[in-house]
Amino acid sequence: MDLVGLRVKYGTAPGEPTENQARAWYQRTQDLRAQGVEAEEAGRRAARETFPTCGQYVYKREADTIFDLIASMRR
Amino acid sequence: MDYETIGTAVLSAVVVVLINRLSLSRKEKHEISAAQAATSRSLLTERQKSFREFETALRELRTVRDTGDAAVVEPRYWNVRTAANVYFDQLDMIASFVRRGDIDRTSAEQDHFDELRKAAEKAIPAYYSFMHDLAAEYGFPDSENLADGDICRNLRLLMSERLSYEEYHQLKRDWGIAEGE
Asked: CA B91 → CA B56, B95, B97, B114, distances in Å?
């Protein structure tokens, strides 16, 4: 499972989610979807329930980071 | 063998393939979509890895950018070009997978589309423009020209399929690509 991807997407602290948290998240997402919750919403709800630092960090996305780094180098 | 016999044989083969495709069992369809989702995730891991290397190279260039010393800047300039090519090739490959349907729509939207779009609209034109100016400033070789239309072609074509008419034409203007290409 892609821990870095989960961290960036759900804004958790570095080091979170752990493998165990990610597994619990995945299971919870599947349970919610089985109840009829839409995929993205299920993922968000599961993240709030299983990741203690969910939403506390904002990670700049890739293209934004590249753009800003380049902008900072322009005269 | 005459043409009519060959034609019938080919037509029969096509029909058989189509019938097989249409009558995929639920299990087979599930396996295909699981495989597509797995493809999307492994491409995501690769993309994130090549992005981190590109980001590192850019930061290292930034620390010497204003030194005015070509001997110091040049190796970092080349590191950035290499890392950028790896990352942009990765994006282009993902775009080609999406266009071909090797990644299902949901995984593509969830894992990749935002980054592909922002790269195409913002990061890529900014990068090529900056590197062109830097090369001119320090006298480095610079043969890469976004306006030729060959760089990140799959990514650009994916955008032509997904963006509005106006948005895509703005992209072409930002890339320096002439009309009619």
From this structure: 18, 6, 10, 11
Confidence at residue B11, expressed as pLDDT on a 0 to 100 scale: 73
Task: Search chain B and give the residue with CA nearest A1.
Answer: B41
Cβ within 8 Å of A, B 22-81: 41, 44-45, 47-48, 51, 54-55, 58-59, 61-62, 65
Of B23-32, B63-72, B73-82, B161-170, minimum mean pLDDT range: B23-32
Q: How many CB atoms lie within 10 A of CB B75?
A: 12
**pLDDT per position as a tens digit, B67-80:** 999 999 999 999 99
Distance from CA of A8 to the nearest CA of B (A): 11
Q: How many CB atoms lie within 10 A of CB B84?
A: 22
Specify whether the CB–CB gap between B163 and B171 falls below 8 A.
Answer: yes
- Summarised one tens digit per residue, pLDDT across range B47-65 is 989 999 999 999 999 999 9
Q: pTM of the entire structure?
A: 0.72
Cβ contact A62–B44 (<8 Å): no
